[in-house]
Automatic annotation (TrEMBL):
It comes from Abeliophyllum distichum. Belongs to the cytochrome P450 family. GO terms for cellular component: membrane. InterPro entries: Cyt_P450, Cyt_P450_CS, Cyt_P450_E_grp-I, Cyt_P450_sf, Cytochrome_P450_78A. SUPFAM superfamilies: Cytochrome P450. Heme binds at residue 384. GO terms for molecular function: metal ion binding; monooxygenase activity. This is Cytochrome. Its cofactor is heme.
Length: 437
């Protein structure tokens, strides 16, 4: 399938008239794929698919004890309660605004510096650096963000490379072999993560100053005794926050900025909306976002055309025999939703290949999981717990970047070719000009 698996599976489903459900096999892995909102809802919201299949590399990198991949049960439900009530509550998200604003200022300075030194901006590099800094400070506080951030950032990059690799052992019973050294690399990386994050937990506990801090590490340490989790599980949860939180925000923003460069009229309309709300009296704040419906519609349209997790992040595992769309599904079957196929289906979306944010002004479409025509964060009990924080970050940074600069094409044309790795990335990173407003 390569880097276009989402497109190829969509094409196969269309040619076989199998959008509602298609069955294939990958080695010994039985697989069903939905490319339709109705069957997608059955899979994602049904209790029969409450587990997520976990690749060998993800399990070895401790994700089996984190929120995303932990098996359904008391432990997983406990993690979800902690996430909903503490880590991603509206109050916690609001408390983290100062960090988001600080990182936005850093990114703006980085854009100015690149324009002065190079005459162009390598957008991906600035966004990834800013996103990593934002996540590290939000998760660990300023100490680790400033002192050890570089080391942990390299670990995140290495983890992406390992998990993105095709591993024969995920599809065939070849546990005694280690193709491409995946197991060895995972064990080595997991040891480094345990050491670094474990030392940070010990140091914060020794200092004893965490009740008044806003970062996630301090939050977990200050939980009531009956809600606390072990240090080993805390390492897994914090590592997942850094690993999953860095990638998606930067990738989504790069797609948005590429669209802004290509569609100058839409960029100008968004900037005009920002100017009306802020009156050019200061930077956009979180409280302004609700007054920027066109900006929000731009984000929705990019999520529709370029969903960060179009296929792989949607996998579920049938825990017992069940039915989907009246078809018998055997226990142990992996189920996927091809969200890219759904968001590009002309029977669901008018003129689906056109970039037209106005469609979300004309019709209100929720992207939080209730409407399976566009559910970029998942749906049902396995919906992404950090979706609200991610959206707040993307909206604020986009508004700040549009408020500060006019983004135009450089000598290198914008290429919208896709490459599916762990997330759906731009095949050729965006390089453009940023003109001060």
């Amino acid at each position: 399938m390569g880097c276009h698996a989402h497109q190829k599976l969509a094409s196969i489903a269309t040619s076989l008239d199998a959008k509602r459900l298609m069955a294939i096999s990958l080695g010994t892995t039985r697989l069903i794929i939905s490319s339709h909102p109705d069957t997608a809802k059955e899979i994602l919201s049904g209790s029969s698919f409450s587990y997520r299949p976990i690749k060998e590399s993800a399990r070895l990198l401790m994700f089996e004890r984190a929120i995303g991949f932990a098996p359904s049960g008391n432990y997983w439900r406990h993690l979800r309660r902690i996430a909903a009530n503490h880590m991603f509550s509206p109050r916690r998200i609001s408390c983290l605004e100062s960090i988001r604003q600080h990182v936005a200022n850093e990114m703006i300075e980085g854009v100015c510096r690149e324009m002065n030194e190079k005459g162009f901006v390598e957008v991906k590099e600035i966004l990834q650096k800013g996103s990593l800094h934002n996540v590290l400070v939000s998760v660990f506080g300023c100490d680790l963000g400033l002192i050890q951030g570089g080391e942990l950032g390299l670990m995140v990059k290495e983890g992406y490379e390992i998990i993105s690799e095709f591993n024969w052992a995920d599809y065939f019973p070849l546990g005694f072999l280690d193709f491409r050294g995946v197991k060895r690399r995972c064990h080595k990386l997991a040891t480094k993560v345990k050491d670094l994050v474990g030392r940070s937990i010990d140091e914060r506990r020794r200092n004893g100053v965490y009740e008044t801090q806003n970062d996630f590490l301090s939050l977990l340490l200050s939980l009531p005794k009956e809600e606390q989790i072990s240090d080993e599980d805390m390492v897994a949860v914090l590592w997942e926050m850094v690993f999953r939180g860095t990638d998606t925000v930067a990738i989504l923003l790069e797609w948005i900025m590429a669209r802004m460069v290509l569609h100058q009229d839409i960029q100008a309309k968004a900037r005009s909306e920002i100017d009306v709300v802020t009156g050019r009296n200061g930077p956009v704040r979180d409280s302004d976002i609700a007054k920027l419906p066109y900006l929000q519609s731009i984000v929705k349209e990019v999520l529709r055309l370029h969903p960060p997790g179009p296929l792989l992040s949607w996998a579920r595992l049938a825990t017992h025999d069940t039915h989907v769309d009246k078809h018998f599904i055997q226990a142990g079957t992996t189920a996927m939703v091809n969200m890219w196929s759904i968001t590009h289906d002309p029977s669901i979306w008018t003129d689906p290949w056109a970039f037209r944010p106005e469609r979300f002004i004309e019709e209100e479409v929720s992207i939080m999981g209730s409407d399976l025509r566009l559910a970029p964060f998942g749906s049902g009990r396995r919906v992404c717990p950090g979706k609200a924080l991610g959206l707040v970050t993307v909206h604020l940074w986009l508004a700040r970047l549009l408020q500060q600069f006019k983004w135009v094409q450089s000598v290198q044309p914008v290429d919208l070719s896709e490459c599916l790795k762990l997330s759906l990335e731009m095949k050729k990173p965006l390089i453009c000009h940023a003109l001060s407003q």
